[in-house]
Amino acid sequence: MTKTPRHIAFIMDGNRRWAKSNMLPVVEGHRRGANTLKDMVKASAERGIEALSFYAFSTENWKRSDEEVMALMKLLRVFLKKEAKFFKENDLRFVHLGNSEDDMLPEDIVSGLAQMQADTSENKGMSVCIAINYGGRDEILRAVKASGGDADRFEASLDTAGLPDVDMLIRTSGEQRLSNFLLWQMAYAELFFTQKPWPAFKEADLDEILTAFKSRNRRFGGSTASA
């Protein structure tokens, strides 16, 4: 079995704490976090990873202050406009994870996400999944509804249809929980937690965790296999 994970999920925690510890506005933490996301995409593509999933905005994040939510939506608009070229140049496939039909996301963002996904659907490189207005339980309920309860159609109805299950989760900033992220897909994922806040997470940190992943013996219920 390969010692390189096919699919890595990131819970990008600590943007606000990083900003406050550096006496910067909260939105600056999110901006730096967006830069780290891009750095991880580049580094992971170089290491042969097939898919990345980033937890950017959960269904619970709407409870944050109006000011912060508006700032995050503004950053998302900039990302959709600015990074289309980056995805094209690097042959990356964009995948939106999350609910785009519950009227929570602004219409221009819904259309922007759909457009980027359509524009990159034929790309052959790594899949980059961004979870926006996403909740794991919500995804499962939507998939059950879309599949009509047909077990054979269930996985094809998930937001991650066609992608491998998550092999490895990395969560930054010291928290140690799944927070309703990719609950179905992470059934047998290896979990890694770091104290570093997301804006401070670097390529060397990714390599350290990849090395640790290779040393683990992965267990899939009745079998034991080297990672």
Write up what this structure looks like.
Helix 2 (26-46) packs parallel to helix 3 (66-82). Helix content is 41%, strand content 18%. The protein has one domain (7-218): Undecaprenyl pyrophosphate synthetase (3-Layer(aba) Sandwich). It is α/β, with parallel strands linked by helices and 227 residues long. The chain has helices spanning 15-21, 26-46, 66-82, 84-89, 107-119, 136-147, 151-154, 203-215, and strands spanning 7-11, 51-58, 93-97, 127-134, 168-171, 190-193, 217-219, 224-226. A six-stranded parallel beta sheet has the order 3-4-2-1-5-6, sandwiched between helices.
Strand proportion, as a percent range, falls in: 15-25%
CATH top level is Alpha Beta
For this structure, what is the CATH homologous superfamily? Decaprenyl diphosphate synthase-like
Q: What would the average pLDDT be, to the nearest integer?
A: 94
**Helix and strand pattern:** EHHEHHEHEHHEEHEE
Q: How many beta-strand runs? A: 8
The fold-level CATH name is Undecaprenyl pyrophosphate synthetase
Shape: globular
Second-tier CATH architecture: 3-Layer(aba) Sandwich
Query: How many domains make up the coordinates?
Result: 1
Low-confidence stretches: none
Q: Structural class from helices and strands?
A: alpha/beta
Tally of contiguous helical segments: 8
Q: Give the terminus-to-terminus CA distance.
A: 6 Å
Summarize the biggest pleated sheet: 6 strands, parallel
Radius of gyration: 17 Å
Q: How are the strands ordered across the major sheet?
A: 3-4-2-1-5-6
Fraction in helix: 40-55%
